[in-house]
Write a structure and sequence with these properties.
Elements lengths: L1 E9 L3 E4 L2 E10 L7 E8 L14 E14 L5 E14 L29
Antiparallel strand pairs: 1-3, 1-5, 2-3, 3-4, 5-6
Length: 120
């Protein structure tokens, strides 16, 4: 899955356990400008490095996997958690970013005159 938005916050890498480190990214997603959404993604292990060059205010595209798992508390009540685990980040537009090359807008061939004199 992927989503595009503006970087709202990037956390420092946290060492959760001896063998697990993670880092969080908050992305401002504006599908409806009146009600922006703030999506929390997590990068784990070697994916934490993907956020080293990401800065607040950058427009980015995040590729992620949707994960879910159950958890049972001490009273036996089962709760479910979802997480968005990122695996790739692309910078979009903006000065100084290495994004995809820009191309010319496609030509509108429907507005070409009918009396075209091309030989083919």
């Amino acid at each position: 899955m992927e989503v595009k938005g503006k970087v709202y916050e990037v956390s420092a890498t946290q060492q959760v356990t001896e063998s697990l480190k993670k880092r969080e990214l908050i992305l401002e997603y504006i599908e409806n400008p009146q009600y922006p959404e703030y999506l929390k993604f997590e990068a784990i292990q070697d994916r934490c490095n993907l956020l080293d060059n990401v800065k607040v205010g950058d427009d980015i595209e995040v590729f992620f996997n949707l994960r879910g798992r159950p958890w049972t508390d001490k009273t036996g009540k089962k709760t479910y958690f979802n997480s968005l685990q990122l695996w790739k980040v692309n910078a979009l537009g903006g000065a100084g970013s290495s994004s995809a090359p820009e191309y010319a807008a496609p030509a509108d061939i429907s507005s070409a005159p009918e009396d075209d004199d091309l030989p083919f």
